[in-house]
Amino acid sequence: MLLIEDLGVQVGDKPILKNVNMEIPDGETHVLFGPNGSGKTTLMMTIMGFTGYTVTHGKITFKGHDVTFMPINERAELGIGVLFQRPPTIHGLKTRTLVEICRKNPNTDIDALAEDLAFKSFLERDVNENLSGGEIKRSELLQLQAQEPDLLLLDEPESGVDLENMAVVGDAINRLLHRGVPKNPTCKLPSKREKKSCLVITHTGYILDYITADRGQVLYDGVLRCSQNAREILKWIREYGYAECVGCPQ
Ligand SMILES: Nc1ncnc2c1ncn2[C@@H]1O[C@H](COP(=O)(O)OP(=O)(O)OP(=O)(O)O)[C@@H](O)[C@H]1O
């Protein structure tokens, strides 16, 4: 699904990511940990193709396509979608209009999606204008549900969300990951091939109560240092701090 090889990225003239290698196979969810400023958002923005993140070396392949220098709209059409940590307010653009633009299938019922996210009353507001932290996340999830991406990039889905709304956010992310998985009463777990793929950044780990993580990784000073069970990594970070991750076996 996603393959990152020897990726170097700089912002302005500042090198941020150094020789990052990462693979997210079909249907897997990987969790990215790391201290503030270690480059986690930079990695997501680079995968999505935002300007300002200059690839100095390396390659990003998605679904077999070299997307390293592909425009952002083409990556979105190919199936990459992002939930921002701090999405901008867009004055003069109604949320409903933005969701219509994101919508993959013109028959998708925006009102029904918004109803599920308790977001219907916000559809006619400008994008993210005067929304609370939890409302912003639900707005982002609504856009993703309309876009129907195959790879979800989730940048701190818990930030600014209270514990009750966390359940709404967690359930919505689960629906996105299991979209199209046939309901099979004899088998509780879908095969990985049927699930969507996901890279999620978290500091608190709350999201792990709602999604099944296949692997965790630690980005430290622009370098991927550790790759293990996500809950184990979280436990380790809580006990010893990030600096100890530098010495972790891969
Ligand atoms: N547009 C920019 N201009 C200048 N520096 C930037 C820019 N974007 C990111 N940086 C710098 O790149 C480094 C990595 O930032 P990034 O947001 O990727 O870190 P992060 O790991 O996501 O941090 P956090 O956990 O705080 O969200 C930081 O030092 C940040 O100041």
From TrEMBL:
Belongs to the ABC transporter superfamily. Ycf16 family. This is ABC transporter related. Residues 2-246 form the ABC transporter domain. InterPro entries: AAA+_ATPase, ABC_transporter-like_ATP-bd, FeS-cluster_ATPase_SufC, P-loop_NTPase. The keyword Magnesium does not apply. GO terms for molecular function: ATP binding; ATP hydrolysis activity. It comes from the Bacteria. Keywords: ATP-binding, Nucleotide-binding. Transmembrane segments: none annotated.
